[in-house]
Design goal:
Elements (H helix, E strand, L loop, with lengths): L4 H5 L10 H5 L10 E4 L5 E4 L5 H5 L1 E3 L7 H11 L1 H4 L4 E3 L2
Parallel strand pairs: 3-4
Antiparallel strand pairs: 1-2
């Protein structure tokens, strides 16, 4: 990601990611910063570096670690979360 992200999205340089935890923490909205893995013992492992509150509370909020205010506004306009899901609480960037 650190080799292409800046040129694709026109943002500043991106440091190389060191782990899945690091990568998940950069996803665009805080509620999306969650990954779940099922291991061979059928145990679920949840990776939620920013917590689960926004996901469980239905909050759409910009993740400032990677997403600029401009990119967030464009995503908000494109996805229209409050139009699609009336219960979603949008925190404007």
């Amino acid at each position: 990601m650190h080799t292409w992200y800046e040129s694709v999205f026109g943002t500043g340089p991106v440091d190389a990611l060191r782990s899945i935890h690091d990568a998940v923490a950069t996803w665009p909205e805080t509620a999306t910063c969650v990954a779940v893995r099922l291991d061979c013992a059928e145990t679920l492992h949840v990776c939620a570096p920013l917590g689960l509150d926004d996901l469980l509370d239905g909050v759409w909020r910009r993740n400032p670690r990677r997403i600029t205010v401009e990119l967030s506004r464009a995503r908000l306009s494109r996805h229209g979360p409050s139009r699609r899901w009336r219960q979603v609480k949008v925190v404007p960037p």
